[in-house]
Amino acid sequence: TILSKGHMIEGVSGKKGGYRLNRKPEEYRVGDILRLTEGTLAPVSCLREDQEPCEKSDSCCTLPIWKGLADLIDKYFDEIVQTASEMIQIPSLSGKEKEMAEYTIKKMHALGYDEVIVDEFGSVTGVMRGTGGGKSIMFNCHLDVVDEGPHENWKYPPFSGAVAEGAIWGRGASDTKGTFAIQLYIPYILKQEQMMTKGDIYVVGVIHEESSGFGAMKMAAGGFKTDYAVMGEATENDLAIACRGRVGIEVVITGRSCHASIPHEGINPFEFLGPFLLALKDYRVSENPVYGSSLI
Fold it and tell me: Which residue has the higher pLDDT, 17 or 264?
């Protein structure tokens, strides 16, 4: 939990003052707590050390550094929205990310990245060097999107990148071009505002995430690694600490051909396939207190 000086969340160790939650602390998600720092304290009562309500409880921004970052977001907001819109206007199904990769490369150069690297598979990595002596961090999104489906089902055309009704519309807006636009600007803004981190910042756009995770797997297999990583997948603005991963299993059923007049001499693989698929419903999957239950 990120706290401002002189404040704390009840139930979380701190020295001065705090928030009195209207619900039990365990009923809040991390995202709920973070949203309280945006200036809207409706879910809580802001308290000082003397337990009297803070005179700014209905309007204060309890995290000074957050307010500074919020001001920067406003400063660069229109540029980020325009970038996200332009990305959405580029169709980039898995295996067809070339134009999106070229846009990313051009944008990274325009934002002054120190280095832009394209691996042999087409994934793009931009590097902004830190001031020195710190740990590295990667911001990661994917360049590809899933099929848009019938266009008549869309309120706005799927590759319009329309900015309307307080949102950006189109295929990939949340998964993950909207986030990628933000990530592209993070090191640029920090450098522009003299707030650059000590460690290097890597912004990575990988290919083939939707179909296989191929781009990220190849980067990992090649030894690419940073001290920290932030993924841009949609989480409804919650903070997710990890993912369960994915395993692909290929099942081969071998039959034996025969003439239709002597079916007893053959083996029909579909006679096995039917019961096999039905049995998957009852297969007991593993569970984890952090990751939840596995899915088939």
Answer: 264
Question: Quick one: which of 22, 29, 14, 12 has its CA closest to 57?
Answer: 22
* Residues written for the chain: 296
Look up residue 199 and give its two tokens: 């460690």
| Residue that the structure tokens 């329309």 belong to | 162
Asked if pLDDT for residue 279 goes beyond 70, the answer is: yes
Rounded CA separation 80/90 (Å): 16
Look up residue 44 and give its amino acid.
V
- Which residues make Cβ contacts (< 8 Å) with residue 149, sequence separation at least 6? 158
Instruction: Say how many C-beta atoms besides its own lie within 10 A of residue 282's C-beta.
Output: 6
Question: 188: closest CA among 103, 128, 130, 116?
Answer: 128
CB atoms under 10 Å from CB of 51, counted, come to 9
Largest CA distance in the chain: 92
- Which sign does the torsion angle of CA 46, 52, 54, 55 carry? positive
Tens-digit pLDDT profile for residues 30-85: 444 444 444 333 333 344 444 444 444 444 444 344 456 667 778 899 999 999 99
Residue 191 confidence (pLDDT) above 60: yes
Residue 80: count of CB within 10 angstroms of its CB: 19
